[in-house]
Amino acid sequence: MKYKTILSLFFVVSFVLFSPNPSTVQALTQEEKERLIQQIEILQQEVTTLKNLISNLQLRQEITAESYLAVDLSNNLVLLSKNSDEIHSIASVTKLMTAVIAIENIDLNQTITLTDEMLNPLGSSPTLFSGLTISAEDLLKACLIQSTNDAAEALSYFMNDGEFLALMNQKTTALGMTNTVFYDVHGLNPENRSNVVDIAKLVSYVYKNHQEVLDITKNNDFWLPDKTGRLLKFKNSNGFYYLPTFIGGKTGYLVEAKQALASVFELNGNPTAIVVLYSDNRQADTFAIIRKLEEE
C-alpha cells in the first residue's frame, strides 16, 4: 500500500513542479524552456520506472528465472536456490567484474581521450564521443549506472591490448569462479557465461571489498555534457534504486541471456545476495524471492 502512496505523491509533485502557468512559460528564455522540457522528460522517466517497480512488486506469479540463488552474506548461508549449477550467458552483469578490475588496477583520476574504436560497441551515450577527454571514474559511473557499453570498452584502453580482459579471467580463478569466462568487458558477447553460484561469489567480493561499486549502482544523479556542452542525465538501468533495502547491483539483458540480475538487499537485517539468470522478468522474480525469504 505504501508504494501506491509514493506513486500518488510523485504524480502530485510532478504536477506542481512541472505545470507552470502559460505566462510563466512565455517569460522563459529559449535555454530555460529547453531545460524545463528536459526536466519534465526526466520526471516522466522516473514516474515510468516507479510504476514498473510497483507493478512488479504487486505481481503474484511463479518465479520465471531458469536459475536463481539467495545467499546471506553475513554467514554465506544459502537461503534459496534453483538450478544453481546451470551455466548461462550473463550479459551486462559482466560489468561488475569490469568495475572490480578497473578499481583495483587503474587510477580513477586518470583521463583518456575517446576514439572511434572505443565507441564501437552498441549502447553508446551522446555524452561519450570521439575526441572527448574523460576520467576513468566517469567512465566507471557510466558503465555501472546506465550500463553504457562503450564506457566499459574505453576503460579497458587504460591497459595494454588484451590485458584488462586477461585480468578479468584471472580474477575468476582468484575468486573460485570455476564456471565463469569472459570474452569481452561489457557483456555484448553471449559467450560471457557463468552460473548463479559464481556470480554470488563475485557479488560477495564486491560487497566486502568495493562498496563504492554498489553505491554507484544506486546513483540516479549522474550527468555529463554532450558535444554542445548541454548536460545530459544518465538513466539508471536498475529500477530497484528507489528501495531503501536495495544495497546495490547490476542488471543485464541479451536475447541469449534473457534478463539477469546480480544484487544485494538488506533482508531480515542481513545483507543478502540475490542472483537471477535467464529470467523473463528479473524484477518480479526478485520480489518473489524476497517474499519467500521474508515468509520463512
Note down, in words, how this protein is organized.
The structure is a single chain. It is built from ten helices and eleven strands. With 296 residues, it is of the alpha+beta class. It has two domains: 1-58; 65-110 and 159-295, Beta-lactamase, CATH 3.40.710.10. The strands form four sheets. The protein has a five-stranded antiparallel beta sheet, sandwiched between helices. The chain has a two-stranded antiparallel ribbon with strand order 3-6. It has a two-stranded antiparallel ribbon with strand order 4-5. The chain is globular, with a radius of gyration of 20 Å. Residues 1-6 have low confidence and may be disordered.
Number of helices: 10
The shape, in one word, is: globular
Q: Separation of termini?
A: 22 Å
Low-confidence stretches: 1-6
Task: Profile the largest sheet.
Answer: 5 strands, antiparallel
Give me the secondary-structure category.
alpha+beta
CATH-defined superfamily of the largest domain: DD-peptidase/beta-lactamase superfamily
How much of the sequence is in beta strands?
A: 15-25%
**H/E series, N to C?**
HHHEEEHEEHHHEHHEEEEEH
**Gyration radius over CA:** 20 Å
Order of strands in the sheet with the most strands?
2-1-11-10-9
CATH class of the largest domain, anyone? Alpha Beta
CATH topology of the largest domain: Beta-lactamase
Overall number of structural domains: 2
